[in-house]
Amino acid sequence: MAHFINAKADAVTDAIDGTIAASGGILTRLDGYPHIKVVMRADWDRGRVALVSGGGSGHEPAHAGFVGRGMLTAAVCGDIFASPSVDAVLAGILAVTGDAGCLLIVKNYTGDRLNFGLAAERARAFGRKVAMVIVDDDVALPHLAQARGVAGTLLVHKIAGALAEEGVDLNAIEAEANRVIAATRSIGMSLDTCTIPGSPKEDRIPPGKAELGLGIHGEAGVEQVAYSDAATAMAAVTAKLADGMGDSDHVALLNNLGGLSDLEMAVLSRELMRSDLAGRLSMLVGPAALMTSLDMRGFSVTVMALGDGDADRLATGTGTSAWPGAKPMATADVLPLPDGLTPIKPLASDHAPTRAFLIRCCEILLASEADLNALDAKSGDGDTGSTLAHAARALMGAMDTLPLSDHTQLFRALGQELSQTMGGSSGVLLAIFFAAAGDAASSGMTTRDALRAGLARMQQIGGAEIGDRTMVDALAPALDALDDGLTRAAAAARAGADGTAAMARANAGRAAYVNAAQLEGHVDPGAEAVARLFERMVDV
Amino acid sequence: MAHFINAKADAVTDAIDGTIAASGGILTRLDGYPHIKVVMRADWDRGRVALVSGGGSGHEPAHAGFVGRGMLTAAVCGDIFASPSVDAVLAGILAVTGDAGCLLIVKNYTGDRLNFGLAAERARAFGRKVAMVIVDDDVALPHLAQARGVAGTLLVHKIAGALAEEGVDLNAIEAEANRVIAATRSIGMSLDTCTIPGSPKEDRIPPGKAELGLGIHGEAGVEQVAYSDAATAMAAVTAKLADGMGDSDHVALLNNLGGLSDLEMAVLSRELMRSDLAGRLSMLVGPAALMTSLDMRGFSVTVMALGDGDADRLATGTGTSAWPGAKPMATADVLPLPDGLTPIKPLASDHAPTRAFLIRCCEILLASEADLNALDAKSGDGDTGSTLAHAARALMGAMDTLPLSDHTQLFRALGQELSQTMGGSSGVLLAIFFAAAGDAASSGMTTRDALRAGLARMQQIGGAEIGDRTMVDALAPALDALDDGLTRAAAAARAGADGTAAMARANAGRAAYVNAAQLEGHVDPGAEAVARLFERMVDV
User: Fold this and answer.
1) Any catalytic annotation for residue B217?
2) In a shared domain, residues A195 and A67
3) In CATH, what number is assigned to the domain containing residue B25?
4) Would you state the torsion angle of the CA atoms of residues B471, B472, B475, B480, taken in this order, to the nearest 10 degrees?
5) What pLDDT, on a 0 to 100 scale, did the predictor assign at position A528?
6) pLDDT (tens digit per residue) in B207-231
7) For residue A284, what is the nearest residue in chain B, using CA coordinates?
8) ipTM, two decimals
9) Considering only CB atoms, which chain B residues are within 8 Å of A146?
């Protein structure tokens, strides 16, 4: 499986450079590539407690995306799924730690604990004040004394970050971070394993199964469970979290492990908010990709019992690129549909000349059914004649319900009728034509000008210009010539329709998808219908 | 391929409900499911120009995620990749349009144009002021008169949204929207097609190929090109955009089509910022999933020539969940590595008793190599003896360089030496032990208390408690008994080490991964080493 990377060995440094380049200048890094990969705030003055986190890469946007005002001061990045070296962590600590000291926020993996731990000792030997907290929010393996650190780490970043921004001292931040860690629990579920760029994919999860309680490095889940749908998947996840979750207010964090579509994450949001936990959730972070496992097609849910002040600390803004904010759980009422969706039927009225004119038009279209179908077969599916004949029959059947004596209302009624009976793009376009003409007529335009306004609107919406091989090629010149009488208009329509036979290229309508050679020599059926309508009117 | 959805028919309404539920109360919808799917601002008072967009679903977060203060007023959502009906659009327009009127922002697809167009006519018949702009930013098909509307639509949403928020009137917003559309161009590239939930996946793009100029509904790209790496992929995309792009300042929008990992998007960010376009880019939106094609493993780049005021309008904050902000292109200098990464070698000094003591310790470890390896073979890879012997040999070789007369410095130097020569987790843990002991000694503690402080730190970092079947089980009781003399300490170490043979469960260290039955009856090799060190000291 190909990935959008360059050389595999450069994937992490390239990604870090991209994150920095796209940060708007808030991020920079230490000059230690490739061994030392430390991303840090460009505006850092060491005036407050520094927060340093990190670990293996492949969890983007964690952790570099959370570096910025109000969250991390620096992120120390290892290679993909590999802990950064002691030297790299030490470089990060020494680069950002001033008199206020530094808190290391470490996910509970042996490599990270050891390397961050030893780096902390080295920094202390230089007289730096360094504390370290270990995040172990994963509840997948309840009997393992050393639970893994997963997406709950972000809540520690955020709350500790808000405290550091306020100027709180190191001991107090460390204590608060440990309180948050104790209150935070996470579990994940995935439909597929992740793909490490340049490595073969492990095909571990069979169709019909999902893994529950998996880690963020492609480690197998605690159990493979039957997968049926999003609702039961979320229920399995929330059941693991519900155990031992108190009744107090909690924040939930809904994390995309990397490969789920936003559509799926939205469906999962719905299920979380309908789950057994819902009554205890008062804030939400996400859904968003926060702590990913490359492209893993899974999600995780984190819950944390809110302590005093946590809600405010979660809600404060940050200068980071990846923190999505924390929102209150709040629902607005669903709103009733507006009036007006059922069009008001105009009052039927009669007007003998108009009735005769419309019937004549319908008869012309009915008589042309076979010819127009034959023409359409050259460029389309051969049904233009039938579509128009169907509309004509429906119109004749509806004649007694139309406001024949009021042309403004009649235009609108014709539009409504055609959009309901004709279907397809042409039905909508003719409906727009008549509706816009009715609109224009109601503002006092002459019938000819109203029809032109209808044509203009139909062209704007349909996108057809003169020369695009559509009915516009006949209708536009006919309306233009109408001032000089119906005979001139009919001649103009005929000339326009015949001209379409020489148009090799169709830019609008269905014929746009047909080979030019197939079109040549054949008149467009829509234009032909318009020409026939005008010509037969002259004959009357 | 399974997806996190429930019934396929409910995927879109479930996703909309999830988006609303996760919006913190800023979104609501009209009560028209399943036919009418309109998401709108919950706080809308019709006081300003309303902005309505939409189209088929499957492009999440577009468009519902961009509803909120400063962007859209409502999003009308169709089924996946299908235009919403005229009634749905009309419902949206009627629900949000007050006296200031409404602008429809429509992507250039026939279905959307027609249905939004006819809905606009219907709304006008109700006396509503409605304008419509059509976004056609795709440059994949330069000869097609009707270019598709893709991710550039977001720039129209944002700039028109900022203007509407300012209270600008409908005509002016329409004109500005059309100016933005004319200045905006996009193109996409993908390594794979998207998967429509519940439908079979089209396997169109062969390995080694990418599609350039593809649409957002799974339509095939204009060409299949050879794919080698992110740099050449981005170069192919930017080459299409460079044509006809003026020299003025542009904003770029880097869009994840849905399935790329954040790591890949970061790499692509780097390539965009190093591309031929870079000199003309002064602002960036993303990288982010903005206008997706479900889970498509591709990206698109949009560029827009900035007009007067556009930069400010792009930069204003919004109340939406999905707009990632627009950042200036700014780079901070890479920072030099801090001093202190190369540890300062302490001044060598001699102290005969200390030298004799250390040599004796090393000799004990060297003599125990085979025994400790044999013990380790019961629970690990059988190299504990060799690892310790290797470290002992190295330490004897370094004896003349150590600060033997200064115990504080000596502890630290031992830590440094062990972390360099011993390797592995035990090397790091012993380095932490000695470094922390040195730290404690430097603050005036007795040697015994300093060693205890070292042990505490090693336990914090390594996570091993008494009873976890590690060297701690011998070391901790020995240090506790040291006040009563070396003999008592040695006895305590021996009792502790022997006790590990009865510990069925290992919670820390490598043996945590080994079956309990395999461990039973065997002393932990680390604990045995500690016991031997104390015992042989007594013998001296």
Assistant:
1) yes
2) yes
3) 3.40.50.10440
4) -170
5) 95
6) 999 999 888 887 778 889 999 999 9
7) B22
8) 0.90
9) 463, 507-508, 512
